[in-house]
Design a protein that fits this description.
- The complex is a heterodimer.
- Chain A is 73% helix and 0% strand.
- Chain A is an all-alpha fold.
- Chain A has 2 domains: 297 residues, no CATH class; 250 residues, no CATH class.
- Chain A has 19 helices and no strands.
- Chain A is globular, with a radius of gyration of 28 Å.
- Chain B has 2 domains: 174 residues, Rossmann fold (3-Layer(aba) Sandwich); 66 residues, no CATH class.
- Helices cover 40% and strands 24% of the residues of chain B.
- In chain B, strand 1 and strand 2 form a beta hairpin.
- Chain B is globular, with a radius of gyration of 20 Å.
- Chains A and B meet through helix 11 and helix 14 of A and helix 2 and helix 3 of B.
Chain lengths: 608, 259
C-alpha cells in the first residue's frame, strides 16, 4: 500500500478534523432519533437567549438613566464585566467537561481509523484541532452578541461617546471574554492531560468520571456564584484591600486585560450635557470621585493583565503538550477498563441481603445507582443539582452562618443548606429518571418487564434515599459545627423524613419506567423551569423556617416530625391507590411535531 | 387450543409503504423455523412484531391460541429474544446486565446467581464478567445477548442473526444448542443470512422478499422445487433479481480501477 503523500495527509487531516468536530457536537445521548441540527439549534438558542437576557438585565440601569455619568458607569461596569468573564470561563469549561471523554482519542477512533494508512500523529493532531475548533467556535458563538450589546448599552446615555470609542469598547470586550472562554476550555483540557499523565493509563479511567463530576460541580457553582459579586467586591479585590479567593483570580486577570485595553475610554469621557440641562443639576462631584477611584485601580489592572498574558499561553501550552503526549499512540481497546471494585461488591452484597425477596426492587435499586453514577448525562444532571445546592450553601456561609447557639437567632438559611441540597438532588433524580440510560438498549428492559412498575419504582426510590443519606452524612460535620449534636441529629432525621415525602411526591404522577423509556422534553420549559426554581426557594425557606421554629423545643420537633410523617403517609397511600389500576407503559413516547407544539394547526381554516 | 405461535395476515406499514404484508406463520413446540430473506425484505420488522416490540398495522399474533396484544406481559415472560444489533447497557458489566434482566424477570436470587455464573463460564466469559460491556468485543456482547435470552428458560426463542460476531467455538456450541433446546420442546424462530446454518438447523423455512412471503415449507420440499439444489440456489432463484456472478465481476472491475 502506498503511504499518503503530503497533500493526501492534509486532506486526511481535514476530513478527520471535520469528523471529530461532528462527534463533539453529536447528540445521540437523549434519543437515537434526535436530529443533531435541531438539538444544536435549541441548545444554542437557549445559551444565546440567556446571554442576551443577562446583558439586558445588567444594562437596565444604564438604559434607564436619563444622563449616564462616565465615572459611576466605569465603576459599576466592573461587576458586569466580572460576570461576563466568569460566565465565559465557566460555560466554556462546562462545555469541555460535557465532552470530557471525546477530548482524547477513544477506542472507537482506534478501531475505525487505526486500519487506515494514516499516521497516528495525523489522527492525534486532527483530534486536537477538532477540540480547538470546538472550543473556539463555542466561545465566539457564546460571546459575540453580548460583546456588541453590552458596550452599546453601557454608553447609550453617556453623551459625547464617539462611534469609534464604542467600536473599541466592543473589540476589547469581545477579545477579553473570548480569550477568557478559551482559557476556561484549555484549562479543562490541561487539567485532563496533567491528571492523565500523573495517574497513568490504568488509574485515570477509574478516576476520570469522579474528576469530571467534581469539575462540573465546581464550574456550575462558579457560574451561579458569579452574579453575587458586587462592583465593591471587585474594587476591594483589585485594590488589594482583601486578598481575592483563588477561584476568582483568573476572572480578575481578564478583567485587568479589558480595563487596560479600554477602561479609560469610559472613565475619561468628558461630561456632555443635553441642551437645556444646567450643570448644577448634575452630581459632578460624585462623578469625579468615581473617576479617581477608578484611576487608582489602573496600575493594578495593568498588573493583572500581565498575569493574564502569561497564564493564557501557559495553560494553552500545557493543554496542547499534555494532549499530544498522552495521545501519541492510538488507544488499546482493552486498556483503561476499570477492574471491579471491592467496595462495589461489598455494597452490592449488603443491599442484596436487605432486598433478597424482591428481585424487581433490587433491579430498580441497582440500576438506578449504576446509571446515576456511571452514565455521563445522568451524572452531569446530578452534578449540576449538587452545584445548585452548594452555591446556596456557600452564599449562606459567606453571610455569616449563625452567631450564637440560640435557635431563634439562627438564620433560616442554615437549615436551608441541607433542604436546598436535598431538594435539588431529588429533583435531579426524578428528572434523570426520565432520561433513558442507553436509548438503544431500552429493548432489554422492555422485553424483561413484567408489567408492574411498583416494585421497580420502590427500588429506584430506595436508591435515591441512599444518595440522600450520603448527602446528610457529608453535611454532618458542618451541621455539628453550626447546630450542636442534639439539633444536628434532629435536623438530619427531619431531613430524611422530608426527603421521603418529597420523593414520593415527585414520583406521584410518574407513569413510566425510570431510565428505560424514551425522553420527551418539556413542552413549555420557559414556564416550568422558573416555576420549579421559585418552588425550590419557597419550599426550602418555608421548611427551613418551620424547622427553626420546631427545633426550639422537643415537643415542637415531634409535632413537625408527626406532621411530615402524616403527609408522607398520605402521599404514599394516595400513590398506592392510584397505582392499583394497571395500564401499559408507553416506552416509545415521542414529542409532538414542532408545528403542533407551536399550535399552528389550530389556526388553519379549511375552505371548501 | 393448540400450543404454539401463529401469525395471521400480519402487516406493517410505515406511512403508506408496506414493510411486511400478508405474513402468516405457524410455529409449534419442538420445531425450528428459519426466516430468510435479503436485506430490506422485512425480516427485522417481522421479528420486531413477533417479539411484541413493534405493533402490527394489521393482522394478529396468537400465542397458545391467545392474542399477544391482550397478554403482552405474559407473552414476553415466555419469550427469549436475541436481536440483530447488540445494544446493551455499556456502563454495566456483563454480570450486572444479566443480573438486571434476571431480576426484572423475577428469578429468585439463588437460581439467578447460579445460572448466570454457570452460563458465563460455559460461554467463556468468566474472566470478563465484571468488566464493563463497553470494553467487550462484538462476539462477547453477542454471548451476553444469548445468555440473557436463555436465562429465564423461555418457551419461544426468537433469534435474529444470533451467530453474528461469534467465534468458531461459540458458533459451534450454538449450532448444537439450538436442536437440543428444540428437542426439549422449545419453539425457535431463527432469522439469518447464513444459509448453511439455516439448512442444517431448521426443519422448515419462510422466505421473505419485499415484505411478502415468496416461499415456505420444509427445506427438502424447497430444494425439490429446483431439483436437488442447495437452499442457496433456492433463495437465489426466489429473491435474487440481479445476476450475482455478473455483479461480482463488475465489482472486481471497479476495485481494479486506478487513476
Amino acid at each position: 500500500m502506498n503511504p499518503l503523500g503530503s497533500d493526501d495527509g492534509a486532506t486526511a487531516f481535514r476530513l478527520m478534523t471535520r469528523l471529530f468536530v461532528r462527534r463533539l457536537i453529536d447528540n445521540d445521548l437523549i434519543s437515537p432519533h434526535a436530529d443533531r441540527h435541531e438539538s444544536l439549534a435549541v441548545a444554542y438558542a437557549l445559551v444565546l437567549s440567556l446571554a442576551v437576557f443577562a446583558t439586558f438585565f445588567l444594562s437596565t440601569n444604564y438604559l434607564a438613566a436619563f444622563i449616564q455619568l462616565p465615572g459611576p458607569a466605569a465603576l459599576s461596569a466592573l461587576s458586569d464585566r466580572f460576570l461576563f468573564i466568569a460566565a465565559s470561563i465557566s460555560i466554556s469549561a462546562l462545555a469541555a467537561l460535557l465532552v470530557w471523554d471525546a477530548l482524547a482519542l477513544e477506542a472507537r477512533d482506534a478501531a475505525v481509523l487505526g486500519p487506515l494508512p494514516i499516521a497516528a500523529r495525523t489522527i492525534t493532531r486532527a483530534k486536537l484541532a477538532a477540540a480547538m475548533v470546538f472550543g473556539a467556535a463555542l466561545t465566539v458563538a457564546l460571546n459575540t452578541i453580548p460583546s456588541v450589546l453590552y458596550p452599546a448599552f453601557l454608553t447609550l446615555n453617556i453623551r459625547g461617546t464617539h462611534g469609534t470609542t464604542i467600536l473599541k469598547l466592543i473589540a476589547a470586550h469581545a477579545t477579553t471574554v473570548t480569550t477568557a472562554g478559551l482559557f476556561g476550555f484549555f484549562g479543562i483540557l490541561a487539567i485532563r492531560g496533567i491528571l492523565r499523565l500523573l495517574l497513568g493509563e490504568q488509574a485515570f479511567p477509574r478516576a476520570s468520571s469522579t474528576i469530571q463530576s467534581a469539575l462540573v460541580v465546581s464550574a456550575v457553582t462558579a457560574l451561579l456564584l458569579a452574579p453575587t459579586v458586587r462592583a465593591k467586591d471587585v474594587r476591594i479585590w483589585v485594590g488589594g484591600a482583601d486578598a481575592p479567593p483563588w477561584p476568582v483570580r483568573p476572572v480578575l486577570w481578564y478583567l485587568g486585560v479589558n480595563e487596560t485595553f479600554a477602561g479609560r475610554l469610559v472613565a475619561e469621557t468628558p461630561i456632555v450635557l443635553p441642551p437645556r440641562v444646567s450643570a448644577a443639576a448634575i452630581p459632578t462631584r460624585g462623578d469625579e470621585m468615581a473617576r479617581s477611584l477608578y484611576r487608582a485601580l489602573l496600575p493594578q489592572f495593568a498588573s493583572l493583565a500581565r498575569t493574564a498574558s502569561l497564564s493564557f499561553p501557559l495553560v494553552t501550552a500545557l493543554a496542547l503538550t499534555t494532549f499530544l503526549w498522552t495521545n501519541r499512540r492510538l488507544p488499546d481497546r482493552s486498556a483503561g477498563v476499570p477492574a471491579p471494585s471491592r467496595i462495589r461488591t461489598v455494597v452490592r452484597k449488603i443491599a442484596e441481603r436487605h432486598t433478597q425477596d424482591d428481585p424487581e426492587a433490587q433491579a430498580g435499586f441497582f440500576f438506578t445507582l449504576q446509571t446515576l453514577i456511571r452514565s455521563a448525562p445522568h451524572r452531569t444532571i446530578i452534578a449540576i443539582a449538587v452545584a445548585v445546592g452548594l452555591t446556596h450553601a456557600l452564599i449562606v456561609l459567606a453571610q455569616g452562618g449563625r452567631n450564637s447557639m440560640e435557635m431563634r437567632s439562627t438564620p433560616p438559611g442554615v437549615f436551608g443548606i441541607a433542604i436546598m441540597l436535598l431538594l435539588s438532588l431529588l429533583g435531579a433524580v426524578s428528572h434523570a429518571a426520565t432520561v433513558p440510560a442507553v436509548p438503544a438498549a431500552n429493548w432489554t428492559i422492555r422485553m424483561a418487564w413484567r408489567g408492574d412498575e411498583r416494585r421497580y419504582l420502590a427500588g429506584v426510590k430506595r436508591a435515591a434515599m441512599v444518595l440522600v443519606a450520603l448527602l446528610l452524612a457529608l453535611l454532618l460535620p458542618l451541621h455539628l459545627a453550626l447546630l450542636g449534636i442534639a439539633k444536628t441529629i434532629a435536623h438530619s432525621l427531619l431531613g430524611l423524613l422530608f426527603a421521603t415525602t418529597v420523593l414520593d411526591a415527585l414520583f406521584f404522577s410518574y407513569r413510566k419506567l425510570p431510565f428505560a423509556c424514551s425522553y420527551v422534553p418539556l413542552e413549555n420549559p420557559k414556564v416550568v423551569w422558573p416555576a420549579a426554581f421559585a418552588t425550590l426557594l419557597f419550599v426550602t425557606y418555608g421548611f427551613a423556617n418551620a424547622e427553626r421554629w420546631a427545633l426550639q423545643t422537643p415537643a415542637r420537633a415531634l409535632a413537625l416530625a408527626a406532621t411530615l410523617g402524616a403527609i408522607a403517609l398520605l402521599v404514599r397511600t394516595a400513590d398506592r391507590v392510584r397505582r392499583r389500576e394497571r395500564w401499559p407503559v408507553n416506552f416509545d413516547d415521542r414529542p409532538g411535531l414542532a408545528t403542533q407544539r407551536l399550535g399552528l394547526l389550530e389556526h388553519i381554516t379549511i375552505h371548501d | 387450543m393448540q400450543a404454539g405461535l401463529e401469525a395471521r395476515r400480519l402487516a406493517k406499514y410505515y406511512s403508506a409503504i408496506a414493510a411486511v404484508r400478508d405474513f402468516n406463520l405457524t410455529l409449534r413446540p419442538g420445531t425450528i423455523l428459519g426466516l430468510l430473506g435479503p436485506n430490506g425484505s422485512g425480516k427485522s420488522t417481522t421479528v420486531a412484531m413477533l417479539t411484541g416490540l413493534r405493533e402490527p398495522s394489521a393482522g394478529q399474533i396468537l400465542f397458545d391460541g391467545h392474542s399477544i396484544t391482550d397478554r403482552m406481559v405474559e407473552y414476553k415472560a415466555r419469550v427469549g429474544y436475541v436481536p440483530e444489533d447488540a445494544h446493551l447497557y455499556t456502563f454495566l458489566s456483563g454480570r450486572e446486565q444479566l443480573d438486571l434482566i434476571g431480576r426484572l424477570r423475577r428469578l429468585p436470587t439463588d437460581l439467578r446467581t447460579r445460572k448466570i455464573t454457570t452460563l458465563l463460564d460455559l460461554f467463556g466469559l468468566t474472566s470478563a464478567a465484571d468488566q464493563p460491556i463497553s470494553g467487550y468485543s462484538k462476539g462477547m456482547r453477542q454471548k451476553i445477548l444469548i445468555v440473557s435470552a436463555l436465562l429465564h428458560d423461555p418457551d419461544l426463542l426468537i433469534l435474529d442473526e444470533p451467530e453474528s460476531g461469534l467465534d468458531l467455538s461459540a458458533s459451534l456450541v450454538l449450532r448444537h444448542l439450538i436442536p437440543i433446546l428444540a428437542a426439549r420442546g422449545k419453539m425457535i424462530l431463527y432469522s439469518s443470512h447464513v444459509l448453511d446454518y439455516v439448512e442444517r438447523l431448521c426443519g422448515a423455512v419462510v422466505v421473505l422478499h419485499r415484505g411478502r412471503i415468496v416461499a415456505e415449507g420444509p427445506v427438502r420440499q424447497l430444494r425439490a422445487m429446483i431439483q436437488g439444489g442447495s437452499l442457496e440456489d433456492v433463495i437465489a432463484q426466489l429473491v435474487t433479481t440481479m445476476d450475482p456472478e455478473g455483479t461480482a465481476r463488475d465489482i472486481a472491475d471497479v476495485v481494479g480501477q486506478h487513476a
